[in-house]
Design brief:
Oligomer: single chain
Order of helices and strands: HHHHHHH
Number of domains: 1
Largest sheet: none
Radius of gyration: 21 Å
Transmembrane segments: 12-33, 59-79, 85-105
Helix content: over 70%
Keywords: Membrane, Transmembrane, Transmembrane helix
Structural class: mainly alpha
Number of strands: 0
Mean pLDDT: 77
Low-confidence stretches: none
């Protein structure tokens, strides 16, 4: 098992979000790459990716709303006037980050809704390679899918 330090760092930074990251981003992108030579499978995989991203944006909206509510509620606590200044700074920071995540999730939801509403135009105006670039596919994933395709073709009778 070859584990590189950037992978460990990315896992460590995303561990509370790791299942969501895999379910809504990594696995659908792999399916898109594997289906890039079959138009029907490609469209289905792309649709699953966009709907997953929409669900992810809803999840982020819910989590950031709860986080903002908790931060806002903490400001009404009594008996914390003598607390260190860093406590108040962190509370304000958490409130600002929660509001920013709400704004970002709203923007992403609007963008994804626009793409889904004009789905036929999306596929006719963008080529497969452009869609692959939109979902930020790296060359190593593409080369893996090409190797898998070559192995399947070499095993065919």
């Amino acid at each position: 098992m070859d584990v590189r330090p950037p992978e460990i760092l990315s896992w460590f930074l995303a561990w509370p979000y790791y299942w969501t990251l895999c379910h809504y981003t990594i696995f659908p992108i792999r399916k898109i790459v594997m289906a890039q030579y079959d138009e029907n499978k490609f469209r289905k995989a792309t649709k699953v990716f966009f709907h997953g991203k929409l669900n992810e944006a809803k999840l982020v909206t819910l989590a950031s709303t709860l986080s903002a509510a908790a931060s806002f509620g903490a400001f009404s606590w009594t008996g914390i006037e003598n607390s260190p200044w860093i406590l108040f700074a962190l509370w304000y920071l958490s409130l600002v980050l929660a509001i920013l995540s709400l704004i970002t999730a709203g923007q992403q939801s609007a963008l994804i809704h626009t793409i889904i509403q004009h789905e036929d135009d999306f596929y006719t105006t963008l080529h497969t390679q452009a869609i692959l670039k939109l979902v930020a596919v790296k060359k190593d994933i593409t080369s893996q899918s090409q190797q898998a395709r070559n192995q399947r073709h070499s095993q065919a009778p």
